[in-house]
Amino acid sequence: MGDTFKNTIENVAWGFKDCVFGMVTCYRLDTEFNQAAESQRPAPEPMTTLAKRRAERLKHTEVFSIQVFYYAVLPCILYYVLFQFSIQFSIQVFYYVVLPCIFWMIDSISGLSGASETKGSWLAVILSFTFDALWILPLFVLSKILNCFWFQDIADAVYVKRHGKPQLPNISTFVADMSFSLFLQALFLIQAMLIKLLPIYGVGQIISLIHMCLLYSLYAFEYKWFNKGVEVHTRLSLIERNWAYFTGFGLPLAVLTTYVSSSMIVSGYIFSILFPLVIISANEAVEPTVPFDFPLKLFAPVVSISNSVFNRSFSKRVRNTSGQHSS
């Protein structure tokens, strides 16, 4: 029992260290990329015919992906930080500049009275709802779409630099894998929220936090594992068999998004800004190869539900296809 507790603490600390240290890896990689690019730079003029041919061939080799990495990762992080800052700035301007100016104009026209204050409160609700519907919500959806492209670009660039060419599946396998994974992750998030409602004080919060740590670790490592050709069920098995390590790896992001702010929007922004760095951490990390003392089957309920839903959907599609062919 004592050895198991010690191993748990050590693995959690291992995962935590890999996540935090990996976040600052981009600064070290920056130097590596500059040195690599400098070593690959063609010789100065005048160039011989052989040197020109060598430089031309270099443009078409995978080694050239180092510069692609350098120009893909850091700009994506910077662009997203600026994007999130612009959204927050627009929100602050609306609530602390636009709305007070509107109320000041109303008070100036109608005078201060109970009726005007009542109308002003209703007007504030209507304007806030309109602002959220026409500005915040579209930007929030846009940020999620940009996440997919920017995060995937970062993950692919890091993977190419560290592991070589990705083992990408065909389109149908890709769509099926991603659909199943997204559905399962949504169910697991609901499971984490329900666990938090346990009446025993502290127990529900701790188990829910472990859920979020494992979910964030799955988010981060999924890019690397997918590029390696690891299937979704195997990815989940890796998380469950080494749950202590992955709990520690996802702990920094889970704590920051859960306890820094009670606002889901602010938590989402924190996640979006830090997650690119966590992707780099996952690609730099060397996760355990030996299974932990015992697995933690937290994904088992949602895997069972997801399998049932997708198997039923697939069977229905096969029946419909066979019926169309027979007719």
Automatic annotation (TrEMBL):
What Pfam families would the database entry show?
A: EI24
Which top-level group of life is the source organism from?
A: Eukaryota
Q: How does it sit in the membrane?
A: Multi-pass membrane protein
Q: Which GO terms describe its cellular component?
A: endoplasmic reticulum; membrane
Q: Does the keyword Transmembrane apply?
A: yes
**Key words, A-Z:** Membrane, Transmembrane, Transmembrane helix
User: What biological process terms from GO does the record include?
Assistant: macroautophagy
Q: Which stretches are transmembrane?
A: 63-82, 94-115, 121-142, 171-194, 200-221
Principal location class = membrane
Q: Where in the cell is it found?
A: Membrane
- The answer to whether the entry has keyword Magnesium is no
User: Which PANTHER family does this UniProt record tie to the protein?
Assistant: ETOPOSIDE-INDUCED PROTEIN 2.4 HOMOLOG, P53 INDUCED PROTEIN
- So what family is this one in? Belongs to the EI24 family.
Descriptive protein name: Etoposide-induced protein 2.4 homolog
Species whose genome carries this gene? Lottia gigantea
